[in-house]
Design brief:
This protein is mainly α. It has one domain. It is built from three helices and two strands; from the N terminus they run ββααα. The protein is elongated. The termini are far apart.
């Protein structure tokens, strides 16, 4: 299979970066912490380690949740 002329078999990371992931349900796993949720979704795009940590920190800063990074998402008040 190819996407935009790129083979999914030989370049799966490139192909994954070109497509989106849209879960059927809300895209937050309540049993995971905020930072674990962000790292999970980063991993879907082959983003790991320090790069994933920086992206998670930035996202937490943007939404004002840096101090709650280790809290389970299920403990957050409903919006």
């Amino acid at each position: 299979m190819e996407l935009g002329g790129v083979s999914a078999a030989s370049s799966p990371s490139t192909v994954k970066r070109r497509i989106g992931y849209v879960p059927q349900e809300i895209a937050v796993y309540e049993d995971l912490s905020a930072v674990a949720n962000l790292r999970f979704f980063a991993a879907l795009y082959d983003i790991f380690g320090p790069e994933a940590d920086r992206a998670a920190d930035l996202a937490l800063d943007v939404v004002g949740l840096r101090s709650a990074a280790m809290n389970r998402c299920g403990s957050f008040p409903a919006a």
